[in-house]
Structures are given as C-alpha cells and as structure tokens.
Amino acid sequence: GIVSLISLAVLSYERYCTMTGTTEADTTNYRKTWTGIVLSWTYSLVWTAPPLFGWSSYGPEGPGATCSVNWHSKDINNASYIICLFIFCLVIPFVIIVYSYGKLLCAIRQVSGINKGMGRTREQRVLIMVVVMVICFLLCWLPYATVALIATFGKPGLITPAATIIPSILAKSSTVYNPIIYIFLNKQVSKTL
C-alpha cells in the first residue's frame, strides 16, 4: 500500500518535471524511471520495517483475513508509529501530488493563454486527470487512515473488525485503480496501447 502511495507521489512529481521542463523527454533513458522505482520501494521499506524491530507491531487486521499494523494497541510506542505513518505515508505524498499537479495546471494554463485552442483542450484533460487522481487517492486511503486513527486514539472497541473490511479493501485495491486512470485519461499512454 505504501509503495502505491509513494509511487503516485513520485509519478506526479515526475510528470510535473517532464511537462514543465525545458528539454525534450528522452524515451531511451530509463535512469529517472529506475530512480523513481528504487526511491518508492526504499521509502516504503523504511516505513514498513520498524514494526519488525520493535517500533509498533504487525498483527491480524479486521476479521483476521489480512495483516497490518496493530491499530488497536494504545501504548505510546504504537501511537507514535501510527502518527508517523499518517504524516509521512499519507499526508506528505498527498501534498506532493496536489503541489505537483497544481503547478502543472498553472503551467498549462499559462501556455493555454498563448495558444487558446490546443492549450485549453490539454488543460481540460490534465484537470480531469488530476481531479480523478486526487479523488481516487482520497477515496482509497482516507477511510483506511480514518479507521486506523479512530482505532488507535478512540475508545477501545469503537471500531469493530467488520467495520475495517471496506476501508482495508479500498486501500489495498488502489494499486489497481491507478494504472486504469493513467491508461484511460492519459492520451499518450492510450495511443501507445
């Protein structure tokens, strides 16, 4: 899940850099692509390994069908890890996504002022993709984060195992939605396919 979140942030930033860069994109050089992949997996590993070394722990999630961070433990060790996960694996990637796509839209808007017909169509396509990406990001991860925070900081038993099923499925299925969004809303990708 964290790889998915970080990959979205890296993709949005890379897309912003590519679209606003002054040079042509080099389709034969995969160095930036591999750097993004390695960065995503390394960052995710940094944030998923601590429970293996004693900062919080992993355990059954919801009805026991999946494994996740122990959301129900109320000790400071667990609560501090949950807060860090929330900030560094949800809030910061979301801020990067909003910043990157916001800056990209501003750049496209400036260009569309010069070339009204082509720029306006491109701006609308990018705007639609940005809105869909942000809404899907929030729909997939916000319920899961909310349930986790309530389970960690709310009254014991407030979140039942059954109540965690849908947010968990939404969060874990986000890896399926992201490629679909890019394929159908990115003209370059859909033309290639």
Automatic annotation (TrEMBL):
Database matches in SUPFAM superfamilies: Family A G protein-coupled receptor-like
Keywords: Chromophore, G-protein coupled receptor, Membrane, Photoreceptor protein, Receptor, Retinal protein, Sensory transduction, Transducer, Transmembrane, Transmembrane helix
One Gene Ontology term of the molecular function aspect: photoreceptor activity
InterPro entries linked to this entry: GPCR_opsins, GPCR_Rhodpsn, GPCR_Rhodpsn_7TM, Retinal_BS
Principal place of residence: membrane
Intracellular or extracellular location(s): Membrane
UniProt keyword Flavoprotein, yes or no: no
Positions of the G-protein coupled receptors family 1 profile domain: 1-182
GO CC entries: membrane
Superkingdom: Eukaryota
Keyword Electron transport carried by entry: no
Biological process according to GO: phototransduction
Membrane-crossing segments per the record: 79-101, 126-153, 165-185
Membrane topology: Multi-pass membrane protein
Pfam families per UniProt: 7tm_1
Family: Belongs to the G-protein coupled receptor 1 family.
Protein name in the entry: OPSP protein
Source species of the chain: Chroicocephalus maculipennis
